[in-house]
Amino acid sequence: MSYELTLNQLPDPNTTPPGPGFVSQQIIDKTPGMMHTLNNGGSVSVKFSGSNWEIQIGYPQLTIAEANTIIPFVYSLQGGFTNFYVQLPTYANPASNPWGATSIVAADVSTGTNSNQIEIANWANRGSGNELAVGDMIKLDTHSKIYLITGALVTAGVMTLTLNCDLSISRTAVDAATIEPNDIMFKVRLKGDAPPFNLTADGLYEGFSLNMRENII
H or E stretch including 67? Predict the structure, then answer.
């Protein structure tokens, strides 16, 4: 799937209408699991489920007018029961620049040798200025998961991208998928109830944070 047009995006300075900017952002790669220490000092571990991103964004003090661009949206989510999109400016596009026109097609994309790799054939056809590098984030059009590139190597015209986690969907959803490197948005839900919005005597809302969890369903 591409981005779902029925889901709203958290208002920010680049949306229409605009919302307030963030003063901080934290993103954590969570892989639920358990580790057990053995008597000999070694350890064994097991994953419970696939990886997901946890995101926290912080807001500064806001005027009433500024707060009115974000508070109604947060309340509309009814706590953690509604999916929405959030875009983080530092990860919205590849570090080099957003991609332009490309001749890379879905048939060029396949799973790599390892379960956390994607191979892109005919890499020379990507188009001038279109690059992907370690630290960039990408999406595939077949599902909502956002991946961080942790390794990038071109061999014999094939780009192999190593990702931060195992591919979360079956091989059939990766093979012949379209790479989406631009305008990255995370599909998320709040981790709980809306935060308190405290209006002070001087007519300003105190700073607050939103805690979110990636939800690819």
Answer: helix 64-67
**Contact status, residue 141 vs residue 104, Cβ threshold 8 Å:** no
Distance CA 8, CA 13 (A): 15
Strand-strand pairing, 43-47 and 137-140? unpaired
Name the pTM for this structure.
0.91
Query: Whose CA is closest to 207, among 101, 61, 5, 98?
Result: 61
Q: Which of 182, 179, 180 is nearest to 122 (CA)?
A: 179
Domain 24-35+44-90+185-214 has CATH 3.30.200.190: yes
Q: Residue 14's pLDDT is what?
A: 95
Region of 6 (left: φ > 0; alpha: ψ -120 to 50; beta: rest) is alpha
User: Which among 89, 144, 99, 95 has a CA at the least distance from the CA of 120?
Assistant: 99
Confidence of residue 115 (pLDDT cuts 50, 70, 90): confident
Residue 121 burial (CB count, 10 A): 16
For the domain 94-180, what is the CATH code?
Answer: 2.40.30.290
